[in-house]
Amino acid sequence: MFFVVFLLFSLLIFRLGIVQIVQGEDYQRKIERTEDVTVNASVPRGKIYDRDGKVVVDNVPQNAITYTRSKGATQEEMLKTATKLAKLIDKETDQVTERDKKDFWLMKNPEKGKDKITEKEWKQYKENEIDETKIYQMEVDRVTEEDLKELTAEELEILAIYREFTTGYAMTPQIVKNKNVTEEEYAVVSENLDSLPGVNTTTDWERFYVYDNTLKTVIGNISSSKEGLPKEMVDYYTSRGYSRNDRVGKSYIEYQYEDVLRGQKTKVKNVTDKSGNVLDSEVIREGQRGNDLVLTIDMELQQAVDKIVEEELRKEKSLYGRHLLDRAFVTMMDPNTGEILAMSGKKLETNEDGKTEMLDFSLGNMTTSYTMGSAVKGATVLTGFMTGVNEPGDYIVDEPLKFKGTNKTKSSAFNRHGAVAVDEKTALMRSSNVYMFKTAIEIAGGKYIPNSSLKLNLEEGFATMRNHFAQFGLGVPTGIDLPNEQTGFQGKINLSEPGKILDFAIGQFDTYTPLQLAQYVSTIANGGYRMKPYIVKEVREPHTEANKLGPVAKETQPEVLNRLDATPNEIQSVQDGFRLVMNGSKGTARRYFASAPYNPAGKTGTAEGVYDGPKREQYLENGQELPMTWNVTLVGYAPYDNPEVAFSVVVPWVYEGKGKSSINNVIGRRILDEYFKLKEERMKNETSDVVVEQDIQLKDDKENKEEE
């Protein structure tokens, strides 16, 4: 035994000597020829939930075939692998460009390509008058349609695969196919990986929108694996560790919260030789999908509001032949916190087949603006109070106004001939234009004198009114946590037209967004606090179980942007006026809201203006004048004495000329009914759950006593 052990140790020492002394330098050189290359593998994005934990946006796993190009991979090697892979899978060729075909044809026919260069040009090339790049470009330019027809369907499929191989970085997995990969394709490729260097089978993911087009324009889009990083932002993303073929948020929520949703990539260390061939791979850090977002949106309410808007828009369009009407908007928010509960927008469009489609346009609540009419009169009344030209309880005579140099008479719809003294509450209830006109005149430093010219400090008057309107969120950013918010357009001030400030006072000069209108009425509802609206309530860490919420990583806190420079009594006075609009004996919305059990308050609005919608160019091309159209609006909140929901309804270009529409009031009543109906149903369910839990507890207590 001693002899055997001695012999084995001798052999071991002898072998170590050979390795270290005789072959040591060779092994050292081999070590020096290897490189450690760290790459990142993509992970699924975070999910998006509504406020009640219902999945809104998910990731659907899908089979995928990838290719990782080694640093030393040659054109011939990749083409050989692509040819083999083309026999195993079906690959669409719709992404192959004409330039791709020309390059491929030249690759397959190098001698024919050279024949397209003249002897004179070859001579210039040899004499360095033309470089290699120019020569190749000449070959490309001279490849004809007839040449390209030589490429067979099989070759085009090889080209489509080869094209994917050459996209992206070396050592970074590139998607070859992730759409409609069959189980057979997946299995047969997996079985042949040894003969397909760089090719692998894996599981990829695709973004899935549970509620189809509901809120889709606000949720936004992500780039596809083919698109990768947007061209204009490649440097920005690559400097933050992204690969060129990574999918990123392109718009709105998906874009705004990219850093949250992107996740932590799997980090893999590849050991390669100097030729770039992978010798070994090691996972350094396991990846983790992105954090989840919890929205403030109530998807059950959102769907109900979408349905109401769609139904009323179709009905108004078909019953009354409103040929310019094509959209309607609703924003609902918690006036005390700024949480967006629903943001609905619908738009009718004619597709290529001539059929009318109803599209989601929820984004229009913050990216499009309109003249809102009398709905903004609450801001005018409070501006009068805040500037000191009026006080709560002051009476102003509502009468037809006549100015020197014009045949037009400014009057209120309810009082076209006589003179009626109205206070601010009655002025709001009956929508008195003259109360607002005289308030604006006073703010601009003027005084109404019948049959006299208006002498106003117009610039100062506009500046004062716009600054005060901004306190409500009108004409300024609302602060919502989404990009590309529009603030509306300010009418151009012309010193020769002092009457424009009167139009401003009744909402027929500057334009505002439906979201601004909702923020404005929320400010009045909650007692004067302009709350910052937001649509993402929480950021949650991913949960290991499907469709479950993880721990809270970040929670959005309500934020007060400013407080109105008005007293509680002044704000209360406007609140009372808004209540009378919907419940007063002569309220403009009484017919629709007086019977509501939840005690609503609000303000109706109509605004006349030149049509500026999508058919504008049509009119101009035909040499026609743009028609005058009417927008109808509504703002409100409920309950009056303890507001929990505020809303805006905006329906532009409803009708032309004379006429009227109540679509704003109908939508307003239906969405409030739906809100309180859902609230009641949920309270009943909660009560039932508590009763069931109590019954279970009583039963358990009884069983325990019996056992004792």
Automatic annotation (TrEMBL):
Catalytic activity: Preferential cleavage: (Ac)2-L-Lys-D-Ala-|-D-Ala. Also transpeptidation of peptidyl-alanyl moieties that are N-acyl substituents of D-alanine
EC numbers for this chain: 3.4.16.4
Keywords: Cell membrane, Cell shape, Cell wall biogenesis/degradation, Membrane, Peptidoglycan synthesis, Transmembrane, Transmembrane helix
Pathway participation: Cell wall biogenesis; peptidoglycan biosynthesis
Residue numbers spanned by region Disordered: 684-708
Compartments (UniProt record): Cell membrane; Membrane
InterPro entries: Beta-lactam/transpept (IPR050515), Beta-lactam/transpept-like (IPR012338), PBP_dimer (IPR005311), PBP_dimer_sf (IPR036138), PCN-bd_Tpept (IPR001460)
Family membership noted in the UniProt record: Belongs to the transpeptidase family.
Protein name listed in UniProt: serine-type D-Ala-D-Ala carboxypeptidase
Species of origin: Bacillus kandeliae
